[in-house]
Amino acid sequence: MEDLKTLITFTYPHEAHMAKGYLESNGIETLLKDEMTVSVNNFYSNAIGGVKLLVKDSNYDSGIQLLKESGYILDKYSKKSHVNDVESMDRKYDVKACPFCKSQNISRNKNVSIWIIPVYAIIGAIFPIFRSTYICFDCDKKWRFATKN
User: Fold this and answer.
1) Which long-range contacts (CB under 8 A, 24 or more apart) does 96-102 make?
2) What is the pLDDT along the chain (149 residues), one digit of tens a residue?
3) Nearest partner of 34 among 19, 64, 54, judged by Cα
4) Same-domain status, 55 and 9
5) Is the pTM of this model over 0.90?
6) What is the C-alpha separation between 9 and 15, in angstroms, rounded?
7) Is residue 130 part of a domain?
8) CATH of the domain at 110
9) CATH at residue 65
């Protein structure tokens, strides 16, 4: 039997099953490792390195290529790669959806405002020191809403 190599790891088993199904539909045999451990207690996922998708050595390169084409693996030069720039927008856009791709798979981040730190250190009172930004997990864009003057 050929040696197996870890092609990609996932935090959750359902993500691994989607990639496994995609590869198997393209003729690449796969195997999932640590799937049941993470299914029983999902807090173990980071401790054991996630759910591993294994393929034969001979299928490794074609598996990587298929996952890149389908978007499971992002190149650093890909247009979907992470964007560190935060764009400022008007509030006319819906807060529950990404204004770029209209996805509802977003989260709200809180970043420390640099201007409030000295005031907070001098006065010692509790001020809102975080600036809220939003992030879309589908298109990896970040934005915040402009304050009205």
Assistant:
1) 98/134, 98/136, 98/138, 98/139, 98/141, 99/143, 100/136, 100/139, 100/141, 100/143, 101/136, 101/138, 101/139, 101/141
2) 468 999 999 999 999 999 999 999 999 999 999 999 999 988 888 888 889 999 999 999 999 999 988 888 876 544 444 445 555 555 555 567 776 676 777 766 666 667 766 766 666 545 455 566 778 777 778 877 666 55
3) 54
4) yes
5) no
6) 9
7) yes
8) 2.20.25
9) 3.30.70
Q: Which amino acid is at 25?
A: S
Tokens 């990896």 belong to 140
